[in-house]
Every structure is written in C-alpha cells, then in structure tokens.
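#struct-pred
JK: can someone run the complex with magnesium ion? inputs below
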Amino acid sequence: MPARPAPPSRSSRVASSGRRKAVDVFKFGGASLADAAAVRHAIDLILTPRPSPVVTVVSALAGVTDALLAMAESARTGDFRAADAAVDRLEARHVAVAEGIIPTRRARAALVKELEEAFAELRTLAHGVASLRELTPRTRDFLVARGEQLSARLVVAGMQARRAKAQYVEAAELIVTDGVFGNAFPDLAATDRRVRDRLAPLLRRRLMPVVPGFVGASPDGALVTLGRGGSDLTATVLGRALKAQRITLWKDVPGLMTTDPRLVPSARIVPQLNVREAAELAYYGAKVLHPRALIPLARIQVPVFVRPFAEPDAPGTEISTRHTLQRYPVKALSIVRGQALVTVTGNGMLGVPGIAARTFAALQQAGISVTLITQASSEHSISLCVPAERGAQARTALEDAFALEVARRELEGVEVQGGMATLAVVGLGMAGSPGIASRMFSSLSGARVNIVAIAQGSSELNISVVITEKDAEQAARAVHDEFQLDKIGGGGVRHDDRLDVVLLGVGQIGRELLRILPRTRRRVKPTIVGLIDRSGYLFNADGLSARQLLNAVTLKEQGASLMAIPGATKATAPEAVSQIARHALSRPVLVDLTADQTLPAIRKAITAEWDVVLANKKPLSASRVEVEALRALATQHGARILHETTVGAGLPVMDSYAKLVETGDKVLRIEGCTSGTLGFLLTEIGKGRPFSEALRDAMARGYTEPDPRDDLSGMDVARKALILARLIGFAGDLSDVTVESLVPEAFRSMPVARFKATLADQDAAWAARQAAATRQGRVLRYVLRATRTRVQVGLQAVPPSHPLAGLRGTDNQIVFTTMRYREHPLVITGPGAGPAVTAAGVLNDILQLTPA
Ligand code: ADP
Ligand code: ASP
Ligand code: MG
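RT: done, structure tokens with the ligand placed:
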C-alpha cells in the first residue's frame, strides 16, 4: 500500500528535550490491526521518511481485548478448558502474525519463542484465576494489558527486521494514573515528567519508541487499564507530554464522521472539528474516540488527526482549536445504545435539598457512570441514564441513599426503564443559532420517534435526548437528515430553488443542452454545477459561471478535453461523481450524454441519491442482471432514472408508454423504425438511388457514425429494441436479440477506408433487394419488433398500408399495439435524431425532475 507522510506539517517546534524536532505521535487502532499484512502496513507508515521522529502507540490486535476479557471470565467461573482454548487461539494468532512479518528464520524463531513464553505465563495466570474462582479488577487489568504489550512487541520486532532502530517502552514506566482498575485516568503532571525523562533520551539517540496503548501504572506500581478504547488516551497523553506537532490516530474509518457510519450510511467525513466539539462527541459516546481522550489536550495546542489506515493519502479529520464549517450549527451526532433511564420521583423533591448532588454521589460511590441527567421543570422528578447492565445496581444505590425520604414518603421511589438509547447532537454553532432543539424534536416526531427525556448540556454544545433503543437507527437518520449532515465537507447547504445538473459527456448534444438550458422558464432553474468528460471534471458547487461554460463549449468544439480548462480535476467518471457528491448539492441530477458504458458512474450517482437522466443507451442495454440491480439500487435510494431520449430522441416514446400503463392499458407489442440513418438510406434507395450514393450522401450530412458500419450493423437499433422490450417484461439480454446486419460478411472486418472505397460493390445486391420489394408493391424498412418473449431487428418489406411504410427520411416511428389500441395501434412519428431534438428531449427529462 502507498504510504505518505501526514498532512502538511506546521513549522516544527522545539521539543522540551532541546534541539530536536517536535515529534509525531502515531496510534494504530485495534480495528486496523487485523493480521500480518496490517501490521506490515502499520510499519510502512511508521518508517515512511519524514522530517519529524515518530513515537508509536499500538492497540491490541483486532478482537484481542475482547478475547482476553472473555478468557478471564471463563477462568473466573473455573472453566479451565475454555480458558486454555482461548489462550491457545490467541497464541496461534500472534504466532501467525510474527511469521508473517519477520522474514529471517533466526529472528522469527526468537520472536516466536518470546511469544510462547508470554503465553505460557498467561496460561499459568489463567489457571490461578480458575483455581481460586476469583477475578479481582486488578488481576483482570493485568491479564488484559497483555493484548497491547504483545502487539507492541510484534511491531518492534517487525521494525527491527527492517533495520529500524525501534525500542519497546513499557507503558507503566510512562503513564502514572489514579489507579482505578478498568478505567484509570492519568495523573497528567506526573506523566508529563516521566514521559520526558524516559523518551527524550531515546529520541536523542534516534531510537523510535513503541508503546503499548491502553495501559498505565497505579500509584503503587500495578498495571491498570484506561478503559475501553484507551489507546487513544495513551496517544494524547504522550502527545501532550512531548508537545508533539501532531497526533495521528490511524483507524478503520475515513475520519471522524458525522455519525457512526455503521448506523447511518450517509454519514460523512467532518474535515475539521473543534477540540471542544470532538471532546463532547467522545464524551457522549461516539465510539471513534475514547471518552476522555481529549482532556489531556485541553489547554495545549496539539492537533489530532483521525485518519484512514487503509488510505494513508486521505486527509481524514483534523481536530484542532479552529472553528470551521460555521454554516453547520450541528456537526455530528452520537448514539449510545444499551442504556437504562433511572427516574427518582416525588413530591418532596422541591423541599429536599441537594437531591441531584446526592443522586450523583450515590452513583459515583457505586462506580456507575452517568451519561445524561435531566430534571423536569416542575422539579418533580430527576432522570438520568446509566448503562443498562448497571440499572439494578443504580436502583439499589439510590434506594439506599434516599431510604429516609422514601420512608417519609417525600420520595415515591426509584424507577428503572431498560432498553433505552441516548442521541446527542453536537456543534459549537448551536449556541448562536436559535431553534436547534425544535428542529431536532420535530424531525424526530416526523420519524415517529418518541422522545422519553431531553437534556441540554450546560455547555450549549450539545442537546441530548433519550429514546427507546429500537428507534435508535431511525432517529439517527432523521436528525442526520434534518441538519443536512450528509452535505458536510464542502459547498454549503441545499437551496430549495435549485436543481443541480452534472453533465457526463460534453459532445454535440451536451453543448446544445448548455445553449438551451438558460432559456427554461421555471421557478426552479436547472444549474450546471459540473461537467465530466473522459479526462476529468470541472465543478463549482455554486454553479459553473457562464464564462466557464462558454470556455468549455469552445474547447470541446475544438476537440480539446476538459483538463485544458484551469481548475479542472483529473478523474475517471465514477471518481468525479463521488468527489462531486461530497458537496452540498440541491436535487442533483447526473445527465449522461456519452455513448460509453457508464454504469459505474451511474451507480455512484444513485448511491449518493442523485437522479439520473440518460440519453446514453449502453447502461440500460447492459446485461439484465446489471440493469435489474441498477433499478433496485435506484429504488433503495429513492433515485429516479429518466431516459426518454434513449429511443426516438425527443419523441415522447417513454412518456407515452408510461401514460398507457398508468391508465391501466397493457402493451402487447412494440414495433418501429428507430434509426434515422437507416431510414434516410432506405428512403433514398427506394427512390432508385444506388446504395453507395445514398450512403455517401448520409455521411456527408453527418447522419452516420464515423464508421457507417456501426449504423448498418443494426446494433444501435438492437439496443433500442432491448430497452423497449424490457419495458414490457422481456427478460433477455442483448445477445438474445435477433439482429440482421446490413453489412455483408465480406465487408465486416476490413478497414474503414477500404469499406468506404468499395461501397459500389454492394450496389447490385441492394438494387436486387429493392426490385424484389417493388415487385410485391412493398417498401423496405429496417424494423424493430419487440414482445415480452421475442425481440428482432432487421430489414423488412412492409405493405403500403403499414404505418411504417409512410415514413420519410430520417423520421422515426414507434408503434404500440396494446389492449386498447389493438385494431389501430398507437403511432408516434417525428424526427428521431439530431442534437437539437435530442437536447430538447433531455431538457424535458430534467424539467420532469424539477418542481414546477
Ligand atoms: P480504533 O481501531 O482506533 O480503536 P475504534 O474501533 O475505537 O477505532 O473506532 C472506530 C469505530 O468507531 C468505527 O468502526 C465506527 O463504526 C465507530 N464510530 C462511531 N461513531 C463514529 C463517528 N462519528 N465517526 C467515525 N467512526 C465512528
Ligand atoms: N484494546 C483496547 C480496547 O479494545 C484499547 C484500544 O484499542 O484502544 O478497548
Ligand atoms: Mg478504539
């Protein structure tokens, strides 16, 4: 994988050690460290040359902390077998990683031996616990700390195998804590000193320290852990002590996002977040950061970057003291499930002093953390949220604390409701924007989510609500939508009076569309925000200026590509769509005017909930599986696909079909002539002109493709026939369409020039065909015929009574035979080609998507 240095570095500061450059602190999260390949990738990142030295913090390998906790629990219940099996599995995993990162046999054997010793010791410890059937918090921490210690050893060995001067540093030597087992917090001042004393000399010797995350020492020197996700905290504590120039947390997500992407698929990367916002989010349960990870940085300016481990070039999220994205009063939201709502109720609340304080004291003594508190304005009750599994304990603690008041009937008692979740919205801008709470509540009620309790943080940085757990996902999506968080990261918020068009393909039709678009008379104006061609794209969230558009049209006319325009970005079409989709667009529409297979770009657009207008026939004549998947994707994302101009250019073919079906009619058969080129050719031949002369005329008028065999092969008509046939339920693919080619076998593979030079060779055969038809009193047409079960395209001699017989020149005709129009089919005739009518048809589709 490519590895590149972190974002542009600020001017490096001098660390406390004296002359050395300020360090970079890297933390590799457990979720990212899945296997040997991942560890190698982490080492690549650490060893990528950069101006500043790196101090590395590592989490346990993915899932190891959970496995260790489960192992400890098995041991506690006396289950030797389960505990042993768990240790064996962990050992096998670590050995496999060791084998995958150390190429030389000797070094590998040494590391494996070290691992075996460590696991033997772990087994002994587990047996001790199993024999005693007692697991103290102290022992549990001692066991669990192994996860980080082992992964840090692996990283050090892997670095040394690459001749890097890596140095393992025991976390307990650096991080001094308050000694609360399972959830310790560092003594920052003491830790600052130890970190400097211990790491500065190493850094001076150009050694690269690697420290296990999540672990520290109690005041009496025992190992303690810092709470789940504690490696984040290790990183910020080290970053603080070393006055790092930045702290980078490499994670399995693209950055800190507007909400948990597993919950809300439209979650976006927040490019920058103020420390206070990020701290609030972490505190309110956004799992991406340890709840107290940012406390060490409260008064010191060390930016933190949350960056994607798998995509080291991507910038991720910057957490710093700036306040950007001020248009967004709410920047992110967090959901915490598995909560219980504890309510203390009573008439006596008014009179009893210090209820709230006593409530907290009681819970704190029981070691229960409170995630949210709210007091009804009547002061009749006080509610708070605690983790559901602590609900019963909370009740007992409170009943004990208020025993006297309950006995005196001043308090009615304590009620605990499980199955709750909290939802918090966070943003610095909330303080200055009135009505945030009401927007949040009305979006929730719109989604039929019942709000059980509300709390506004005193900081005005957040509003939290308690809802039932089963509503969590629905609630998160509703609130995410309400604050347009899917639009964060550029462009600004949606405008209701706009419809943003992104043109894919800037050929003749595209240029014509650009000319006619400004003339539309609608309240909601289509605005061209993006142009995409094979070279890249041009984009402006506020709409491309008239000058930029003119420039693009002129350049494209001269055969240049969009990349010739200043400000254009190089990208493939799907990349262009994804990049544009990160911006705030109003009712975005992708208009595909290419003749390429653009399904990947269209899928990107639909996934971003854009509508799609197609003149391009290729996507809808792709395989049935692909087209059905595309339709399903569109349904899932509420995206519309309009494609009137895929058949018969501007003629209302799809529109008529839709109207027939809407009114309950059933279309049995569709026939027609849908090639203006072949129509012209056959009309001319019918008038007695030789084939070669008629075709040359068609070429001169620009009716044909550069290689006229593309028209003569019938494939273009076959695609249209397939699109029509699929409307009425044809289940086949393009290969199931019977196509008669008008290019004789002998002429199919010769070079174009030769084909054009030998046209006259085909004249005799054409004259004979025409004569045969004339003898029968018929006219030659290139006809498509589609039913639910059969699709054919080819040359036909039709009787003069047939509607197709009357067709002239390049006109197209589509004939619908339906239940209602059985005797006299419904016929649509008119010009079926040319940039002007096609662009008008495309515009018509765009306007269909525009509210009047
Ligand atoms: P690490 O590997 O560093 O320990 P975590 O697994 O603790 O990382 O954090 C990343 C996880 O947090 C993601 O998998 C994601 O599902 C979850 N998450 C919750 N809220 C957010 C958010 N707002 N932004 C990004 N990820 C989030
Ligand atoms: N390994 C620990 C956990 O899973 C700490 C961390 O990953 O930050 O919680
Ligand atoms: Mg974590």
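RT: quick notes.
Residues 1-19 have pLDDT under 50 and may be disordered.
The radius of gyration is 35 Å.
JK: thanks, will look after standup
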